[in-house]
Amino acid sequence: MLSALGVIVAAGNVIRLYRQSILGRAWLAVLLVPPAAVIGASILLPWTLGIGFEVDRPASAMGEFFTDTFHRRTAAPLRIVAGDAEVAGLVAMASSDRPSLFLPEKPELTPWVSDADIRQHGAIVLWQVSDNTGAPPAAIKSRFPDLVPEVPRSFERPVQGRLPLYRIGWGMIRPQAAGAAPAK
Q1: Ordered DSSP codes for 116-141
Q2: Stated pTM of the model
C-alpha cells in the first residue's frame, strides 16, 4: 500500500487525481490507524480482557533490582546472568552493567560463558515462576545443583490492568574468592 503511494508521488502530474481531499484523508487513515490501534490495544486489553503482550514486561525495574542486589551482596559488578532465555535475556539487556547471558538449557548458544567464568565472577540465575514454591526448572537444577532459590520477586508491569504480577524466581551464585579452591 505504501509503495502505491510512492508511485503516485513519483509520477507527479502525470496521474490525474479526482477528489484529492478524500484520497488524502484515506491515505492519512491508512498511515495512522494501524499504529493507533496497536497503542490502544496495548493500553485497553490489559484492563478489559486481562490480555498482556510479550513486550509489556518491566525490563528496567528487573534489571535495576537484580543488578543492585548483586552489587550489594558481592561488592562486584554483575557480569553474568543465567537462566530462562526470555527472562535472563531481558535482565541482561536492561542491566546497567551489561552482563553476559548464559543459557543453561542450551549452553552451546552462549559459548562465551563457561562454568569457570560463572565460578570466578558469580551470576544471577533467573526463571519465570508460575507456582507458589518458586522452585527452579529441571534444566537449571541440573546445571546448578547447589543453587539456593531466593524468595520469588514480583514486578508490576507498565500497564498492569487486571494482569497478575510478573513473578521471577531467582538465585545467586557468589563469585569465588581469589585463590580459593572450588567447592566439592
Answers
A1: HHHHHH-EEEEEE--SSS-PPPHHHH
A2: 0.73
